[in-house]
What does this fold into?
Amino acid sequence: MKIYAINGSPRKNKNTATLLKKALEGVKYSIKDEEVQTDIINLYDYNFTGCKSCFACKKIDGKSYGKCALRDDISEIIENVSQADGIIFGSPIFFQNITGELKSFLERLLFPYLTYDDKHTSLAPKKMPTAIIYTMNVTEEQMKKSGYVNTFNQIESYIQAIFSKPESMYSNNTYQFDDYSKYKSDLFSEEDKAKQRDIQFPLDCEKAFNIGENMAKNKRNQN
Ligand SMILES: Cc1cc2nc3c(=O)[nH]c(=O)nc-3n(C[C@H](O)[C@H](O)[C@H](O)COP(=O)(O)O)c2cc1C
It folds into this structure.
């Protein structure tokens, strides 16, 4: 069994990456007696672009029908991820959306498999369980009030059309800097942030762990 985590954060050891690693720990814990491989892909390590609208993936009888014809650092990653047994996406929220890197990656991964028919038939080689983890500055209350959830639902609906409905989780009010006193950030209460980091973030880590554990368990039960 192979489960990938896709890190859409530029930081490899902060909130998003920590939660993704917890989810992969959950995967390993769940099926420790079996052969299971996990891998985290840090998107910011790669040179790649989003979809360039060449439409080779939609050309009838074309050699790239149903596949991304663009060749760059993530071409092979896209092929490997498409053959996996599960994918856990993760992204910090930048300007009320997932990061540009994750958005570009999703364009390349999902769009070639999305048929332009009224059912959005999937051309992906297989269906597989998916999950998505969002981390952000705003509190859960602000997130719900400010339309973030609509955006998340839209992203998730594309993932659902191709692979499966993702299990999703949010980590709110994240601790952004190592030392708040060194950065101009009057908007935030460091005390509140530290409380969140010490009390809520460990609970978020447990949630992420459970997402990984359930994904692997469900996948094993299907086999
Ligand atoms: C360019 C940029 C834009 C951001 N925009 C938002 C935003 O619109 N809403 C929000 O709640 N947090 C926003 N944030 C904060 C991050 O989403 C938050 O700190 C996140 O947990 C960072 O993830 P990381 O620790 O994995 O890097 C932004 C951060 C950056 C750097």
